[in-house]
UniProtKB/TrEMBL annotation:
Response regulatory domain span: 5-116
4-aspartylphosphate carried by residues: 56
Database matches in Pfam families: LytTR, Response_reg
Single Gene Ontology MF annotation: DNA binding
Keywords recorded for this protein, A-Z: DNA-binding, Phosphoprotein
Upper classification of the organism: Bacteria, Pseudomonadati, Bacteroidota, Chitinophagia, Chitinophagales
Bilayer-crossing regions: none
Protein name in the entry: LytTR family DNA-binding domain-containing protein
UniProt-listed InterPro entries: CheY-like_superfamily, LytR-like, LytTR_DNA-bd_dom, Sig_transdc_resp-reg_receiver
Species this protein is from: Chitinophaga horti
Coiled-coil portions: none
Domain HTH LytTR-type: 152-244
Amino acid sequence: MSIKTVLIIDDEEASRSLIRQYLSAHPTLQILGECENGLEAVKAINLHKPHLVFLDVQMPGLNGFQVLHEISHVPLIIFTTAYDRFAIKAFELNAVDYLLKPYTRQRFDLAVEKARQRTDQHALYELASSLPVRQGTWPTRIFVELPGRLRSLDLHLVLYLKAEKEYTRIHTAQESYLSSQGINAMEKRLDPQRFMRVHRSFIVNIYHIKEVYRDISRTFILLNGGTEISVSRNYINHLKKLIY
């Protein structure tokens, strides 16, 4: 999927005007609309479903980060703000880029190019994910997305997977990676002899389970490295099958 539609969200007219001006050099990008506050932003994103959003951080109603927690359609996000202290949080939310005001046309163009590269990566990832898995065989490596590239990841290193809305966070001992696939789709593509669903939001690698224990009426899994995960009642039978 290529980027075709854009939404501009900023409470300052001058900032929105600058983005419009810079976007004029990208005639393939259609501006669907503009918003002045976070509440308008949520409605516009869910209604128009833009491919790319230029999103201010500090706005009336809802700030930029709160907007991302409220939307059902998740576009590519380029944050635009005068405050550098939000940069780390922005990239934790998998933002394409973080434009610190005032920014130049050259810096703006670089952010747009990063967004285009991100869509190319998604296309490659979706192609790899759509390849049929021969019955009785399961992948031992997958590609995970990083800014500007894809990394090959050995599934033996994965400790657990956690649902994050329609995405899935893949955790190893040292790092975590955000997959564009939901946890239900991930479960279908992972070896059930190695990966076990223990909660609607969690899949664990059973080779990294250190111990299982009960606390009053709840069951917990302790993984190597110290992560504790609660086992829900709906999935407790998956765990019981491993008890001998």
